Amino acid sequence: MTKYSRLHSPVRRPAVAVVLALSVAMPLMLVQAQTLRVPGQQLRTPGLGVTGSGVAGGAGVQRQADYIVAVVNSEPITNNEVRARILRTEQQMRQQGAQVPPRNELVRLLMERLIVERAQLQLARETGVQVSDAMVDDAVANVARQNQLSTGELRRRLEADGLPFSQFRNDLRDEIVLNRLRDRELDSRAKVSDQEVEQFLRAQAGGGTAPVAMELNLAQILVAVPESATAEQVAALQARAQLVAERARSGTDFAQLVKEFSNAPGGRGDGQMGLRPPDRYPELFVNATQNLPIGGVAGPVRSGAGFHVLKLIEKKRAGMPGATVAETRARHILLRPGPQLNEAAAVARLAEFKTRIAAGQADFAALAREFSQDGSAKDGGDLGWAGAGMFVPEFEERLNSLAPGQVGDPLVSRFGVHLIQVLERRNSTLSPREQREAVRAALRENKLEEAYAAWAQEVRGRAYVEYREPPQ
Fold it and tell me: Residue 284 and residue 298: Cα distance in Å, rounded?
C-alpha cells in the first residue's frame, strides 16, 4: 500500500460526497458554510432566474421548465442546476443554525462555483481522469454506512426528499473525478524543502509577538430531533441529551457514548471532527466550547439538527504538530485488476475472503501472504503504525470507520481493491524526526491551499464563459 501525505484543497468535502449526498436528506452537515459569505456589493448574475426569496424571479413564479443561464466552453449550465444547488445549500445552513446570506449573494457565488467545477470537469475528461462504477458504488456504500443506513434506505431517503438517485450518483462521480484531478495537478506545486522546515522550526523556537492562530479538535454526540417532532418529543430528546452530557462529565468514555447515542452522520467512530480552525466549525460549536479546558464537555446545545454534546479533545497553535498523535495499525489484502481478474471479480473474491475469515475458515494473514499483490504481503498484509494523512483518502476513510478487529467490505481505490482489517489503535509521542515530518505535512497543507487557489484561477481563466439572459 503506497503511503503519502493526503492532498487537500479548500473546496474538498470532509468526506467523499457527504455534502453532496445528504444536503437535503440528513439532519446535520458540517460543510464549510463560512465560504458562502461574500463581502462587497451585491451583483446581479446575468441570465439567472433565481432571485430574492423565490425561484425563477419570485416565489411561485416560474418562467418555464428550464433554460440555459451560462455556457462554459460550449457546455450549458441550466437554471434548474443552479436552483437545486441554492436550495440544498440554504437547507444545510439552516440545519446548522448558520446565517443564510441574501439570495442574490448566494446566487452569484454558487453560479461562479458551478462554472469553476464545470471547467475543471472538462479538463478532467480531456486529460483522461476516469472513475469506475465500482468506485462510485463504494462511495455510495460509504455515505450510507456513515449515516447508519443501508444503501436501499439511503436511496429511499434521497428520492423522498426530491434528489433522484441517478443524480446523486452523478454528483458522487463528479466529486471523485475532481478530487483525482486536483490531486494530480497540485502534487508538484506543493513540495516542501528541508530548508523551509528548518526555517519554520527556528521561527517557532524563537517565538514572536504575532497573533497566534488556533486549531480545535471537537468531538460531538448528536441527539437528532426530527422536523416533525412534537413539543413532548423534543423535551424527551433534550432530557436524553442532558443525561448523555452528565455521563460524559462524570468520566464515561466519550467514544462509547458516541456509539450508544449519537445520530451524527459521517465522521469517525469516536465522534471526533479533526483539527481545524474555528471558522471551519459551526459558530454554535465554537461559542459553546471557547472557555472549556482540554477534555471539558459542553452542552447540550440546540441547533436545527437537534441537541449536541461537545467535548474539546485538543487545542493547539495552527501549523504546529501536536506532541502526540493518534495512530492505527492495520493490514490489508490488495488485488490489482487486470486481464486475468477484472474489478468486479476482485471485489467478489475479497468478499468471499471476508466471509471465510468471519466464519473462522481462513486466516487473514495467511490469505494476505498467498494472494495480496502489495509489498506488505510477506508480512501478512501488516501496514504498521500510521497516523492521519498517511494513506490515500478513500483508504483512510475506510480505516476510520472500522473498530479494532473489524474487517471492512472490499474497497476500491486508485491502487486496486482492498480488504482491510484494523488491528489496534494508540496515541503515540512523536520523535524528533516524526515532528519534522509533521511540520512538513502542515506546511504542505498550507501550500496546497495556495496552489489550489492559483490553479483554479488558471483553469477558470482559460475557460470561455457566456452568460445567457432568461427567456422572456
Answer: 11
- Phi/psi for 12 (5° steps) reads -70, 140
Separation of alpha carbons 412 and 409, rounded Å: 10
Specify whether the backbone of 227 is left (phi greater than 0), alpha (psi in -120 to 50) or beta: alpha
Instruction: Please name every residue paired with 467 in a beta bridge, in sequence order, or none if there are none.
Output: 70
**Which overall architecture, per CATH, does domain 324-429 show?**
Roll (3.10)
Task: Name the nearest CA neighbour of 419 among 340, 355, 359, 360.
Answer: 355
- The three-state secondary structure class of 175 is helix
320, 313, 318, 265: which is closest to 289 by C-alpha?
A: 313
DSSP state of 8: -
> CA-to-CA distance for 348 and 430, rounded, in angstroms?
40
Can you give the pLDDT at residue 146? 64
Query: Please, what are the averages of pLDDT over each run of 10 residues along the chain (472 residues)?
Result: 31 28 28 25 40 39 69 91 85 69 85 92 91 85 74 87 86 89 85 84 60 74 85 90 89 84 66 79 85 85 87 71 73 88 89 94 94 91 84 82 89 88 83 77 79 88 89 76
Instruction: Name beta bridge partners: 115.
Output: none
| Domain range summary for the chain, segments of one domain joined by + | 217-314, 324-429
Same-fold call for 217-314 versus 324-429: yes
pLDDT of residue 468: 87
Q: Give the integer Cα–Cα distance in Å for 399 and 229.
A: 35
Please name the helix (run of DSSP H) or strand (run of DSSP E) that holds residue 306, with its range, or none.
strand 306-317
309: Cβ–Cβ under 8 A, 6 or more apart, which residues? 220, 221, 223, 241, 244, 245, 248, 257, 297, 298, 299, 300
Dist CA 367 CA 217 (whole Å): 38
The closest of 26, 30, 21, 23 to 136, measured between CA atoms, is 21
Report whether 119 contacts 73 (CB < 8 A): yes
Q: How far separated are the first and last CA of the chain, in Å rounded?
A: 58
Dig out the grid coordinates for 98 from the structure: 448558520
Pick the CATH number of 217-314 from 3.40.930.10, 3.10.50.40, 3.30.420.480, 3.30.300.30: 3.10.50.40
DSSP states of 364-399 as a string? HHHHHHHH--SGGGGGTTEEEEEETTSS-HHHHHHH
How far apart CA 466 and CA 472 sit, in angstroms, is: 18
Cα separation, 309 vs 304, whole angstroms: 14
CA distance 308 to 299: 6
If DSSP states are collapsed to H, E and C, what string results for 124-142? HHHCCCCCCHHHHHHHHHH
Whose CA is closest to 107, among 91, 83, 88? 83
